[in-house]
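This section describes the prediction task in plain terms. A model, or a person checking by hand, is given the sequence of a single protein chain and must write out its three-dimensional structure as a string of tokens. No templates, partner chains or ligands are provided. The sample shown here is typical of the held-out split.
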Amino acid sequence: EHVSDAVLSVMGKPSRAVYDAFCRKFERLNREYGLKQYVVPYLISSHPGSTMKEAVDRAEAVRDMGYMPEQVQDFYPTPGTVSTCMFYTGLDPYTLKPVFVEKTPEGKALQRALLQYYEPRNAEKVVKALQLTHREDLIPLLVPAVGRRAVQRTARRAESAEVTIHNDGTYTVHPNQKGRSTGKNARATAP
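The expected answer:
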């Protein structure tokens, strides 16, 4: 469901090393018995604990696996789950330590787009996520050439979101509101 051990821990899942060991054994047994079966990962975007950094790491891992998911699941809180408790409280209920929770539509869209990085329609969002995490080095590896050209054409017209990066490495995305004054004399409003 993720590749980050920190996020997997929040999910109550074993580490990525367990998944990797399973895949190696699965592939070995398939070769040994002449079978053509495949492991299809189930990936969730914006799960509590997943910052943009973890989402970028997952996109890189998905690319390295050669996996191009056609369908992805965005996290939605469901009653009675530990993940829902974290979503609403921002705390791990077992440790009471803070857990990052992406709640903004734009932040959720960026994390989701990273799972389908290969789609030209996601190029602008993937580029923005990579810029937010200072991983511009991945743009030529994750964004198809046709998507990069489209991003370049719209760069002058694009309005970027305001992003607050906190000391603990988490961030908050504040989408710009059309028609709102952002000039030198704009009045700041409390969050």
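For orientation: The longest strand covers residues 162-165.
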